[in-house]
Amino acid sequence: VSIVDLEEMTGRWKPAVAPNAEIEPYGPAELRSAIANGELVNYYQPKVNVQTGAVSGVETLVRWQHPVDGLVFPDRFIALAEENGLINDLTRVVLSSAMRQAHAWQEKGLRLKVAVNLSMDSFSSVTFADVVSDAVLSAGVAPQDVVLEVTESRLLLDQRAPLEILTRLRLKRFRLSIDDFGTGNSSLTQLRQIPFDELKIDQSFVHGASRDNTALAMYSASLNLGRELGMEVVAEGVEDLEDWDLVRRTKCDLAQGYFIARPMPASALVEWIAAWDRRLPQLVAAS
Ligand code: C2E
Ligand code: MG
Ligand code: MG
Ligand code: MG
């Protein structure tokens, strides 16, 4: 058996490609017109209560429905938007579409908290808090039903503008969430300055943590910190039954991840909830 046959059998064989071949990056002009032409679509991923299984809300995750390349994930265009002054336009489009959707769900009697990811690059202009609240209020949604997620590694709580904007948003009754917690370097002092409502433990400390002492230590420390500071704690990256058992055993508040649901188009949500309700009795049975 040749090396190639062996590699093929073990699944490691790959067709020949140029060394260091990379996917061609998108350019700012292409992204700008995609934003303007409505090529961005919102997907939604549920966050569920770990003890009862109740669906607490959904996180909005943007995708680019590219006319040629198909569905493109945000890791290929968020930084591009940030670096080219397009992030505020992108946020506006994602936010207003999420709010229209939230309102439509409410009309159907489905009261879900809807979370939207915000880029720290938007936190330099003091008018940003008004931009956000105008988009929410004009859709007929209450700020209490909206969660604003900001990634911990990008938080600049030693600077005046972000601190002021977060405070303004909190005063307008939005729920503030600190995302990917454990991957940044916020000091405890800084964390205390902003009344975050929610802390999301990064998926790298959740998935597989029951078999990894270092991850488990980070998971437990983050969970306890969130609790002590009075925040609702979300475990991200709950991918399998072991992860689900861990979050239940440790009494984390909310869970999100592939084990529960993949991000999906809005149109799939109602059907997913019905399927989740059927699956639930086994998942929340006392163990
Ligand atoms: P995030 O906010 O931390 O979102 C969670 C990411 O983890 C999502 O990736 C989601 O699809 C993925 N995920 C969910 N469950 C699991 C799981 O069980 N296992 C694993 N391995 N992954 C899981 P996605 O949608 O590719 O988004 C990546 C990041 O892009 C997001 O991370 C967020 O930081 C950013 N992003 C997404 N949408 C927006 C947006 O509208 N605006 C901004 N500024 N950033 C966005
Ligand atoms: Mg997020
Ligand atoms: Mg995250
Ligand atoms: Mg992330």
TrEMBL record:
Domain of life: Bacteria
Location of the EAL domain: 24-277
GO BP terms: phosphorelay signal transduction system
Organism encoding this protein: Cryobacterium roopkundense
Protein keywords: Kinase, Phosphoprotein, Transferase
Protein name: EAL domain-containing protein (Putative c-di-GMP-specific phosphodiesterase class I)/ActR/RegA family two-component response regulator
GO MF terms, alphabetically ordered: cyclic-guanylate-specific phosphodiesterase activity; kinase activity
Residues represented out of the complete protein: 115 to 401 of 401
